[in-house]
Amino acid sequence: MKQMTLSLGAQFPDFKKKAVVSIEKGKEFYDLSYEEIRNSGKWMVMFWWPKDFTFVCPTEIAEFNNAFTEFSDRDAVLIGASTDSEFVHAAWRRDHEDLRDLQFPMLADTSKSLATELGILEAEEKIAYRATFIVDPQGTIRWVSLYDLNVGRNVKEVLRVLDALQTDDLCPCNWQKGEATLTA
Predict the structure, then answer these.
(1) Residue 20: inside a domain
(2) Is 57 a catalytic residue?
(3) Could you tell me whether strands 106-108 and 76-82 are parallel, antiparallel, or unpaired per DSSP bridges?
(4) Were 27 and a residue from 22, 31, 52, 58 both cysteine, which residue would form a disulfide, CB within 3.0 to 4.6 Å?
């Protein structure tokens, strides 16, 4: 039986997981909870990748990091996640030049419980699909994007959708921030 992905209008599930927040010895790990994010009153953008120490994944992670300020400017908490452990995340960050200075946490869903609850666990290898969730400050999932394991996502599109959702207006096809919205 195939599990459905939590989708639009669902409440994002609670979690408390280890996350890598630094490569500085003794300061690498942090217990991150969804309650903490929800209490911030901010939007959340959580993006998942299949595996650490791979090829497509670091290109996406680095691009999200390049856009970190843009997410912050939109009152959005950015979180990266995979089913790898916090120790693998930390080793990858130390090893990969593009990941050393990440400004967002790398969540470790080693139990695969959050990926399972979100419905994004690939059946054969039990790794997360490339999934992106935009969650509003009330905890409601407002956008879900899933990609094949071999295809990287477009960070500018994630920002465009976040901008559109934050207008609370009707936004036409290819709408960009600053353009007119529609009236019904």
Answers:
(1) yes
(2) yes
(3) parallel
(4) 22
Q: Are 125 and 146 in contact (CB under 8 A)?
A: no
Q: Is the dihedral of CA 162, 164, 168, 173 positive or negative?
A: negative
CA pair distance 9, 25, nearest whole angstrom = 40
Q: Assign 58 a pLDDT band (cuts: 50, 70, 90).
A: confident
d(CA 175, CA 184): 16
DSSP annotation of 73: H
> Is there a domain that residue 174 lies in?
no
- By C-alpha distance, which of 18, 19, 7, 17 is closest to 132? 7
DSSP state of 156: H
pTM: 0.92
Question: 44, 45, 46, 57: which is the annotated catalytic residue?
Answer: 57
Q: What is the CATH number of the domain that holds 119?
A: 3.40.30.10
**For 121-161, what is each residue's pLDDT tens digit?**
998 999 999 999 999 999 999 999 998 888 888 999 999 99
Q: Of the segments 5-9, 33-37, 119-123, 168-172, which one has the largest average pLDDT value?
A: 33-37
